[in-house]
Amino acid sequence: MLQKVVISRSRWNTITTHKLLKDFTLIVPESEKQEYSDRIKNCEIKTIPDDIVGLGKIRNYCIDLYKGKDIMIFDDDIREFLNLTRERPLRISEPDTVQELIDNLYNMALDMDVKFFGFSQKADVRKYMANQPFSLTSTYIGCAVGIISNELRFTEQNKFKVDVDYTLQQLMHHRIILLDERFSVSQIRDTNRGGNSKYRTKESTILEMEYLEEKWGKYLKIGQTKNKEQTRVKVPRTQQLSI
């Protein structure tokens, strides 16, 4: 059975993921439990010590909390899921349908003996390729990360971009991940108040990206668009034909 966990790193009135899920646990800072309990009623609420800061430490706390269990950890700012297989994105926000998407992907990961799985983070149907509905190596999994019980830990060196490092760890140790390109998680990225946003600056982001580049070298490609950085995992798996 898959344990679903939402980690709240924002103020209670800005989180959205809890509206999409069924049968999940919300993890909130100890000092804010009462505030959340008074307002969010559709889930179990557990606490994390206030001094545990940074996404890597929080993800590891959840792994330890549910040690030996399979879990999927969701960021708190997911607005909807998107079906990218159509001419235009089809919005999915009904909890029963979202549950079906999660269950189907989890069962595929179990059948494939994959330890790390998730959904696309792209919202553009033009980037979806019908002949490649799943990715096994070519990008990182974030926002909604499925972990089938294993020994790997998230880096605590960084406060951000820890999912990039964890994806590469999975590829190094297990040689495969499972990313469902057909469906995307759409989130309010880096705009919510509280949580990691208090520590995110241009300088801190540059330092953390430099750390990842130094650690992973040619297997990680980091670029910059007009508005944000782009991160691409580059781990070859498919055999190349030589003629």
Walk me through this protein's architecture:
There is one protein chain. The chain is α/β, with parallel strands linked by helices. The protein has five helices and twelve strands. It has helices at 33-37, 55-65, 95-112, 162-174, 202-216; strands at 2-7, 24-29, 44-48, 70-75, 78-83, 90-92, 116-120, 134-135, 144-147, 178-187, 220-224, 229-233. The strands form two sheets. Strands 1, 2, 3, 4, 5, 6, 7, 8, 9 and 10 form a ten-stranded mixed beta sheet that branches. Strands 11-12 form a two-stranded antiparallel ribbon. A hairpin with a 4-residue loop joins β11 (220-224) and β12. The longest helix has 18 residues, at 95-112. The protein is globular, with a radius of gyration of 18 Å. 37% of the residues are buried. The model has no long low-confidence stretch (mean pLDDT 89).
Topology:
Layout: E1 2-7, E2 24-29, H1 33-37, E3 44-48, H2 55-65, E4 70-75, E5 78-83, E6 90-92, H3 95-112, E7 116-120, E8 134-135, E9 144-147, H4 162-174, E10 178-187, H5 202-216, E11 220-224, E12 229-233
Parallel strand pairs: 1-2, 1-4, 2-3, 7-10
Antiparallel strand pairs: 4-9, 5-6, 5-10, 7-9, 8-10, 11-12
